[in-house]
Automatic annotation (TrEMBL):
GO terms for biological process: cell redox homeostasis; glutathione transmembrane transport. It is a multi-pass membrane protein. It comes from Acidiphilium multivorum (strain DSM 11245 / JCM 8867 / NBRC 100883 / AIU 301). It comes from the Bacteria. It is found in: Cell membrane. This is ABC transporter permease/ATP-binding protein. The gene is cydC. Keywords: ATP-binding, Membrane, Nucleotide-binding, Transmembrane, Transmembrane helix.
C-alpha cells in the first residue's frame, strides 16, 4: 500500500481538481438521497392528506416539497455531469504526469541499467501498468472518499429524525461499504496480481514473437511460441473470470445489504410512528432514503477488488523508477575545454553484478583529431570503452578526462553532445526518412538534410522514392535494406557536427561492394574529427594506422599497425592467422 500512498502524492499539483471532483461526487450522492427521501415523504404525505378531508388538503403545502423535488433532481443531474468532467480532467492530468515521471525515471537507466529487461515487459509497465494506475483516482480513491463523506452526512441526517434510524443506516453502510469490499479484496488479491503478471508476460512474449518472427519461422518454432502465448492467454482469462465472479459477488452482496436495510427501516419506522416520535409519511422517507443512501457505497466492492491489481502495477512501476541510475549526474557541467584530448589513466569498469571487470587498468591517450582503431575479439571490452566515454557506465577506479576535465564532472547530455555514434545496429524509427534524419538535428532544413544524404551517398536513393524525404521507412526500417539503413545512420552523423566520431563496427554484415561505398562516405565524414573505431577485423587497416588491442578488458598492444604486425605480439599473431585463413 506504500506504493499507492506514493501514487496519491503525485496528485498534489492537481489537488484543486481532485477536491472539486470529490465535492461534486458527494453533492451528487446527497442530492439523490434527498430526492428519493423527499419524494417518498411527499407521496406518502399526499396520500394521507388525500383521505383526510377538504380542510387538510387546503392546509397542506404542496408547492414547497414539489419545488424541493425539482431542485434536487436538477442538482443531481448538474452535479453528476460536472463531477464527470472534473474527475476525468483530474485523471487525464495525472495520467500525463505519470507518463512523464515514468519516462524521466527510465531514461537515466538506459542502456546499461535496462540490459537485463525484456522489451515487452518494459512496454507493459509503461503502458498497461500506468494506464491502470491512471484509473486509481476515478475508480478507487474518489469512490472511497465520496462514500465516507456522504455516509456520515446521510447517517447524521437520519439520526436527526431518529437516532435508531441513523444507527441502522450507518450499520448497513458499514457492512456494504467496508465488510463486503474487504471480502472482495481478499478474494481478488491473488487473481488480480496474477492478471497483472500474466498480462506483462503475454505482452513480452508477443513483442518477442513479432521481433523474432523470421527466426521463429526459419526454426519452425512459431507453433511452440504460439502455444506459449495461448497458455498465458488462457491463464489470464481464468484469472479475469474469477475476478468477474468476485465482482458479481460484491455487487450482489451490496444489493442484498441495501435491500435488508431498507426492509428493516419499515418496522423501525412503524414502531417510531406508534410511539408518536415520527409522523406516518416519515416511514416512506426512511425506507426510500435508505435505499438511495447505498448509491454511495455501491462502487466500493469493485474499487477494493481493483486495489490489488493497482498495488501490483504501482509496485512494478515504482520498482523501475527507484533503481539508482548507473551514472550519478553532477548538478552542472564545467565550461567546454579549448582542446578535446582524451585520456584514461588506470581506468577500470565493472557492471553491476559482474564477477570480473569489463575494463581493467586502462591507460590510453588520444589526441584531438587523431584516428584510433580499437581491436579485439567479442567480449574484450571494446563496447564497454564506448559506454565509459558516453557516460552510460561509470568507472570504478582511475581517472578519465577530456580536455583535462574529469568525465564524472560533466553531465551526460553535455558529454554526449560531443560525440556522434555510427554502429552496426542502427535504430530506425517507424515514420518517414525526414523524421529519422531530424532526430540528429531537429532544426535542420531540407537543404541540410539533402547535404547529409549526399555525404552518406543516399541522396539518389531518396530522390527515386515517390515520397522523397517523406517516404515511410516501416517498422524498424523494414522498407530499407541493411546498407540503406547504415547509410541513413551515416546521414544522421553528418547532421551532427561533433568533434568525436565513434564507429562501432558499422560495416559488419555488409557485402563487399556496399561496404566499400560505405567506407568512402565514412572517410569524408571523419575528416577533421577525432575518430575511435571498434573492430575485430584487420581489413582496411593501413600500416600507419594507430591500433589499440584489447583482451579481457586490458590493453595488450598499442602502436602503428605496420610495426605491430611485424612484431611478436597479439596483433602479429592475429595478422598471421588472418593470412593463413585467406590462403585456405
Amino acid at each position: 500500500m506504500r506504493d499507492l500512498i506514493r501514487l496519491l502524492r503525485l496528485y498534489a499539483p492537481y489537488r484543486v481538481w481532485v477536491l472539486a471532483g470529490i465535492g461534486l461526487g458527494v453533492l451528487t450522492v446527497l442530492a439523490n438521497f434527498a430526492l428519493l427521501a423527499l419524494s417518498g415523504w411527499f407521496l406518502a404525505a399526499t396520500g394521507v392528506v388525500g383521505v383526510a378531508g377538504y380542510a387538510a388538503q387546503n392546509a397542506f403545502n404542496f408547492f414547497t416539497p414539489a419545488a424541493g423535488v425539482r431542485f434536487f433532481a436538477t442538482l443531481r443531474v448538474l452535479a453528476r455531469y460536472a463531477g464527470r468532467l472534473v474527475d476525468h480532467e483530474a485523471t487525464f492530468r495525472l495520467l500525463a504526469r505519470l507518463r512523464m515521471v515514468a519516462y524521466a525515471g527510465l531514461e537515466p537507466l538506459a542502456p546499461v541499467g535496462l540490459a537485463g529487461e525484456r522489451g515487452g515487459d518494459l512496454l507493459s509497465r509503461l503502458v498497461a501498468d500506468i494506464d491502470r494506475l491512471g484509473d486509481f483516482f476515478l475508480r478507487v480513491a474518489s469512490p472511497f472518499m465520496i462514500a465516507a463523506a456522504a455516509a456520515l452526512v446521510m447517517a447524521l441526517g437520519f439520526a436527526i429524525v431518529s437516532p435508531e434510524a441513523g444507527l441502522l443506516l450507518l450499520l448497513g453502510l458499514v457492512v456494504a461499504g467496508v465488510a463486503v469490499p474487504l471480502a472482495s479484496l481478499g478474494l481478488g488479491r491473488r487473481p488480480a496480481g496474477a492478471a497483472v503478471a500474466l498480462q506483462a508476460t503475454m505482452r513480452a512474449d508477443l513483442v518477442d514473437s513479432v521481433q523474432g518472427m523470421a527466426e521463429l519461422l526459419t526454426c519452425n518454432a512459431s507453433g511452440a511460441m504460439a502455444e506459449r502465448v495461448d497458455a498465458a492467454s488462457a491463464a489470464l482469462l481464468a484469472a479475469q473470470r474469477r475476478l468477474a465472479a468476485i465482482a458479481g459477488f460484491g455487487a450482489a452482496a451490496g444489493l442484498l445489504v441495501a435491500g435488508l436495510t431498507m426492509l428493516a427501516m419499515l418496522p423501525l419506522g412503524g414502531a417510531l410512528a406508534d410511539a408518536h416520535r415520527i409522523a406516518g409519511p416519515v416511514i416512506a422517507l426512511l425506507a426510500l432514503g435508505a435505499m438511495a443512501a447505498f448509491e454511495a457505497v455501491a462502487p466500493l466492492p469493485a474499487a477494493f477488488q481493483l486495489l490489488g491489481g493497482m498495488a501490483d502495477s504501482a509496485r512494478r512501476v515504482f520498482d523501475l523508477l527507484d533503481r539508482p541510475p548507473p551514472v550519478a549526474e553532477p548538478a552542472s557541467s564545467p565550461r567546454r575545454p579549448a582542446r578535446l584530448d582524451l585520456r584514461l589513466d588506470g581506468v577500470s569498469l565493472r557492471y553491476p553484478g559482474a564477477a570480473h571487470p569489463a575494463l581493467a587498468g586502462i591507460d590510453l591517450a588520444i589526441a584531438e583529431g587523431e584516428h584510433v582503431t580499437i581491436l579485439g575479439r567479442s567480449g574484450a571490452g571494446k563496447t564497454s570503452l564506448f559506454n565509459l566515454l558516453l557516460r552510460f557506465a561509470p568507472h570504478e577506479a582511475g581517472t578519465a578526462t577530456i580536455g583535462g576535465v574529469d568525465l564524472a564532472a560533466i553531465r551526460g547530455d553535455d558529454l554526449r553532445s560531443l560525440f556522434t555514434v555510427v554502429s552496426q545496429t542502427t535504430a530506425i524509427f517507424a515514420g518517414t526518412l525526414r523524421d529519422n534524419l531530424l532526430l540528429a538535428r531537429p532544426d535542420a532544413d531540407d537543404a541540410a538534410l539533402w547535404r547529409a544524404l549526399e555525404t552518406a551517398r543516399l541522396a539518389d536513393f531518396v530522390r527515386a522514392r515517390p515520397g522523397g524525404l517523406d517516404s515511410l521507412v516501416g517498422e524498424a526500417g523494414a522498407k530499407l535494406s541493411g546498407g540503406e539503413a547504415r547509410r541513413l545512420s551515416l546521414a544522421r552523423a553528418a547532421l551532427r557536427a561533433t568533434p568525436f566520431l565513434l564507429l562501432d563496427e558499422p560495416t559488419e554484415g555488409l557485402d563487399p561492394l556496399t561496404e566499400a561505398e560505405f567506407r568512402r562516405a565514412l572517410a569524408g565524414l571523419a575528416a577533421g574529427r577525432t575518430v575511435i573505431a571498434i573492430t575485430h577485423r584487420l581489413d582496411h587497416l593501413a600500416d600507419d594506422d594507430r591500433v589499440v588491442m584489447l583482451a579481457e578488458g586490458r590493453i595488450v598492444a598499442d602502436g602503428r599497425f605496420g610495426a605491430l604486425r611485424q612484431g611478436a605480439g597479439p596483433v602479429a599473431r592475429l595478422s598471421r592467422l588472418r593470412e593463413m585463413s585467406l590462403r585456405f
